[in-house]
Amino acid sequence: MNKFSAGFTAVELLIVMALALLIVGFSFKGFLLFKRNLMHWQERITLEQAGQRIIKSLTEDLYKLRGIQQADPTTITFEDYKGDTLTYRLKNQNIFKNGYPLLHNQILAQFLKFEYYTSEGDIIEKQKIERIKIHLILRYKKNRYFELISSVKLRNRRSF
Question: How far apart are the two ends of the chain, measured CA to CA in Å?
């Protein structure tokens, strides 16, 4: 063996480069998969936070309800304990509170429905409402959906 030939042959270098290329390729694919999953979870968290914010606002206001003025499947208008009139409405894929939109940043309201019940669970007219069920479905961009269902038992209700 010649002391000047201590090195790698072209074939050995090609094999090492091919293996390195495979490792880099698999690492990049793993990174792309991680990035896609991260974006999915960020979208889900954004939807959940928006839905929970709306449900929280609605339930807090409904707990303060003194009288219902309008009780439709997609709109509710009521007076709170201070005498202020509040209206929640589904319109143009957004939920409005007294005319102000509650959704932003590519989040759309696909579905909002109010159902009105007695304490026994019967659906009834607005004078006898004791419990309101809220069903909300939100959509983010094209294909991410989030559904929330909540129920509020009215405490301070009085008839109009």
Answer: 106
Phi, psi of 59 (to 5 degrees): -65, -40
For residues 23 and 160, give the distance between their C-alpha atoms in angstroms, rounded to a whole number. Answer: 73
Whether the model clears a pTM of 0.90, i.e. scores above it, the answer is no
Centre a 10 Å sphere on the Cβ of residue 27 and count the other Cβ atoms it contains.
10
In angstroms, how far is CA 31 from the centroid of its own chain? 26
If you count them, how many residues does the chain have? 160
What is the share, in percent, of the chain residues with pLDDT greater than 70?
89
- Does the pLDDT at position 20 exceed 70? yes
Q: Which SS3 state, helix, strand or coil, does residue 49 take?
A: helix
Sheet architecture: strand order including 107-117: 107-117, 131-140, 144-153
Which neighbouring-strand residues pair with 117?
123, 131
Triad 73, 62, 69: Cα angle to 5°: 55
